[in-house]
C-alpha cells in the first residue's frame, strides 16, 4: 500500500514547529513564522517558527549553561545517549523518511537510505565516545612526566544544508555529543522539519537541557553572525556553499573559532578505456543521480576516453532515460524534484548555456512542465571548453560527457578547478588506479564506485572544498582540544 494523504498529514502534524531551546519548545520571540514547501507541488506543508537575533542569543545562552554539564557526563553516558538516539531513529525510520521526502523531495527509497546513513553516525560515535585518547610519557631529559588529555572544545555552532537534512545534522551532532559539547544547530530554511524531528529524539535520550538547541530561521546571517562573534561559542561547523563558507570563516576569525567547513565541489569522474563499461555506467549513474544530483559529491564533469565515448554515451543515455521522474512518495519514482525554483532555474540556465555553445542533449535537456520543480535526467555530449557547467557546480540531474585521450591530459583537466572534494575513476588497471588516485587533488576518491560516504570513513575536501574531516575515527577530533600537563617528580 502506498503513502496516503492521511500518512502525510500525520507525520507533518507530529513534528514540532517551534524552536527547541534549553530543552523546551517555544515560539520565536516576535511570533514570526515561515512556510515549508513541498518541492513536488510548490504548495505549503506547514509553518514553523522564524527565529530572530534574540532567539539566537537565547539558544546560545542555553548551550553555554549546558556545557559544563555535558563535559561532566561520563563517556559511557554520552555513548548510551547516542545509542538511544540510534535506536529511536531505527524505530521511526518510516515516518522520518516520509517527512524528509515531503520537505526535500527525494524519492522515499532514498529518504529511507538517508535515515539509515544518518542514524549510523549516532552508532559510530557512540563507540568513539568511549575511545577518546590520551597519553603519558617520560620527559626526554628525565625528572618529569608528560600527561596528554583531550577535552571538549566547548559550545558548538552547527549549520546544515537542505540536501541531506538528517545526515548532515547527525554528522555534526554525533561527534559533538560524543566529545561532550553543547550545540546550537541551524538547519536550512527549506528543510527544517527533519532537524526538528531529530531534536525531539535527542530530547528523549537523557541529554541535559540545552545540550542540543535547534533554531529555524529565514535570515541566517542576522541570527548566526552575532553568535559567531559573541566569544561564547568555540567551534563552528558548516556544510554549504564555498561562497557562504568564506563569509563564515571571516566572521569566525574575530574570536579565532575552531572551524570545520564542508563546502562546494566540482567532482570529476574519469572512465578509462579498460574499465568495465557496465560497472562504469552503474557507478556514474549512482555518482550523478544520488539525491537527484543535488549533492556536493555528485559527478560534475564526466571524462570518458575517446575510444569508448560512443559506447559509454549510448549506455549512460539509456540508463538515465529510463529513470522515472515524479513526486517522491510514488514508489515507482527514482528522480524527485529539485529543491526550489531558484535551483530549477540554475540547472536550466547551465544546460541552456551548454547547448547554445554546441552541446547535444541525448536525453532530457529542459525542465518538466507542470507543478513542482522538476528537471529530467539529462546527458550532454559535445561540451565546449567555455561551457559554464565545466566550472560551476550543477547540483542537478545533468551529466556532461567530456572526451580525453591520455592519462596525463585527464588528470590535468580533473585538477583544473579551485575545488577538491571528491573525484571518481573507473579502470581495471591496478597501477593506473593507484597512480591516478594519488595524482587527483581531492580529499576523497571513489575507485570503481560511485558512492563513498560512510560514517566510519573521514569525509572532507581540500582547496576551496573545505577544512577538516567529518566521520571516521578522526571525526571526533574536530570537537576536542588537546591539553598537555607537565608533571614534575
UniProtKB/TrEMBL annotation:
<protein>
    <submittedName>
        <fullName>Succinate-semialdehyde dehydrogenase/glutarate-semialdehyde dehydrogenase</fullName>
        <ecNumber>1.2.1.16</ecNumber>
        <ecNumber>1.2.1.20</ecNumber>
        <ecNumber>1.2.1.79</ecNumber>
    </submittedName>
</protein>
<dbReference type="InterPro" id="IPR050740">
    <property type="entry name" value="Aldehyde_DH_Superfamily"/>
</dbReference>
<keyword id="KW-0560">Oxidoreductase</keyword>
<dbReference type="GO" id="GO:0009450">
    <property type="term" value="P:gamma-aminobutyric acid catabolic process"/>
</dbReference>
<dbReference type="InterPro" id="IPR016162">
    <property type="entry name" value="Ald_DH_N"/>
</dbReference>
<feature type="domain" description="Aldehyde dehydrogenase">
    <location>
        <begin position="25"/>
        <end position="485"/>
    </location>
</feature>
<feature type="active site">
    <location>
        <position position="262"/>
    </location>
</feature>
<dbReference type="GO" id="GO:0004777">
    <property type="term" value="F:succinate-semialdehyde dehydrogenase (NAD+) activity"/>
</dbReference>
<dbReference type="InterPro" id="IPR029510">
    <property type="entry name" value="Ald_DH_CS_GLU"/>
</dbReference>
<dbReference type="GO" id="GO:0036243">
    <property type="term" value="F:succinate-semialdehyde dehydrogenase (NADP+) activity"/>
</dbReference>
<dbReference type="GO" id="GO:0102810">
    <property type="term" value="F:glutarate-semialdehyde dehydrogenase (NADP+) activity"/>
</dbReference>
<dbReference type="InterPro" id="IPR015590">
    <property type="entry name" value="Aldehyde_DH_dom"/>
</dbReference>
<comment type="similarity">
    <text>Belongs to the aldehyde dehydrogenase family.</text>
</comment>
<dbReference type="InterPro" id="IPR016161">
    <property type="entry name" value="Ald_DH/histidinol_DH"/>
</dbReference>
<dbReference type="InterPro" id="IPR016163">
    <property type="entry name" value="Ald_DH_C"/>
</dbReference>
<dbReference type="Pfam" id="PF00171">
    <property type="entry name" value="Aldedh"/>
</dbReference>
Amino acid at each position: 500500500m502506498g503513502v496516503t494523504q492521511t500518512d502525510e498529514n500525520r507525520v507533518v502534524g507530529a513534528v514540532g514547529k517551534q524552536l527547541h531551546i534549553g530543552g523546551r519548545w517555544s515560539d520565536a520571540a516576535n511570533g514570526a513564522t515561515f512556510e515549508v514547501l513541498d518541492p513536488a507541488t510548490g504548495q505549503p506543508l506547514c509553518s514553523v517558527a522564524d527565529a530572530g537575533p534574540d532567539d539566537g542569543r537565547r539558544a546560545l545562552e542555553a548551550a553555554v549553561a549546558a556545557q559544563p554539564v555535558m563535559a561532566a557526563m561520563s563517556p559511557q553516558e554520552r555513548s548510551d545517549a547516542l545509542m538511544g538516539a540510534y535506536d529511536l531513529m531505527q524505530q521511526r525510520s518510516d515516518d522520518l523518511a516520509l517527512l524528509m521526502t515531503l520537505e526535500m523531495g527525494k524519492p522515499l527509497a532514498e529518504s529511507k537510505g538517508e535515515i539509515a546513513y544518518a542514524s549510523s553516525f549516532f552508532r559510530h560515535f557512540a563507540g568513539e565516545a568511549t575511545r577518546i585518547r590520551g597519553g603519558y610519557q617520560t620527559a626526554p631529559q628525565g625528572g618529569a612526566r608528560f600527561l596528554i588529555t583531550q577535552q571538549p572544545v566547548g559550545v558548538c555552532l552547527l549549520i546544515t544544508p537542505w540536501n541531506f537534512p538528517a545526515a548532515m545534522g547527525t554528522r555534526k551532532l554525533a561527534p559533538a555529543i560524543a566529545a561532550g559539547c553543547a550545540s546550537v544547530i541551524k538547519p536550512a530554511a527549506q528543510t527544517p522539519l527533519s532537524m526538528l524531528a531529530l531534536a525531539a529524539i535527542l530530547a528523549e535520550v537523557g541529554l541535559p537541557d540545552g545540550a542540543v538547541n535547534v533554531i529555524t530561521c529565514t535570515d541566517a546571517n542576522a541570527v548566526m553572525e552575532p553568535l559567531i562573534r559573541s566569544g561564547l561559542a568555540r567551534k563552528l561547523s558548516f556544510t554549504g556553499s564555498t561562497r557562504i563558507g568564506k563569509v563564515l570563516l571571516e566572521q569566525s576569525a574575530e574570536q579565532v573559532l575552531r572551524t570545520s567547513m564542508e563546502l562546494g565541489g566540482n567532482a570529476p569522474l574519469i572512465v578509462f578505456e579498460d574499465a568495465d563499461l557496465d560497472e562504469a555506467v552503474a557507478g556514474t549513474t549512482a555518482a550523478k543521480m544520488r539525491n537527484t544530483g543535488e549533492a556536493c559529491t555528485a559527478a560534475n564533469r564526466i571524462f570518458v576516453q575517446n575510444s569508448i565515448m560512443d559506447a559509454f554515451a549510448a549506455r549512460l543515455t539509456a540508463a538515465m532515460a529510463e529513470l522515472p521522474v515524479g513526486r517522491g512518495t510514488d514508489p515507482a519514482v527514482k528522480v524527485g524534484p529539485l529543491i526550489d525554483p531558484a535551483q530549477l532555474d540554475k540547472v536550466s540556465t547551465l544546460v541552456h548555456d551548454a547547448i547554445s555553445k554546441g552541446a547535444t542533449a541525448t536525453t532530457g535537456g529542459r525542465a518538466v512542465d507542470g507543478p513542482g520543480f522538476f528537471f529530467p535526467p539529462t546527458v550532454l555530449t559535445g561540451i565546449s571548453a567555455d561551457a559554464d557547467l565545466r566550472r560551476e557546480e550543477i547540483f542537478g540531474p545533468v551529466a556532461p560527457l567530456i572526451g580525453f585521450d591520455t592519462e596525463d591530459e585527464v588528470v590535468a583537466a580533473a585538477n583544473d578547478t579551485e575545488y577538491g572534494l571528491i573525484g571518481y575513476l573507473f579502470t581495471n588497471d591496478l597501477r593506473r588506479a593507484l597512480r591516478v588516485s594519488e595524482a587527483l587533488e581531492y580529499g576523497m576518491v571513489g575507485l570503481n564506485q560511485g558512492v563513498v560516504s560512510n560514517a566510519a570513513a573521514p569525509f572532507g575536501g581540500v582547496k576551496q572544498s573545505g577544512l577538516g574531516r567529518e566521520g571516521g575515527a578522526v571525526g571526533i577530533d574536530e570537537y576536542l582540544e588537546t591539553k598537555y600537563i607537565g608533571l614534575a617528580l
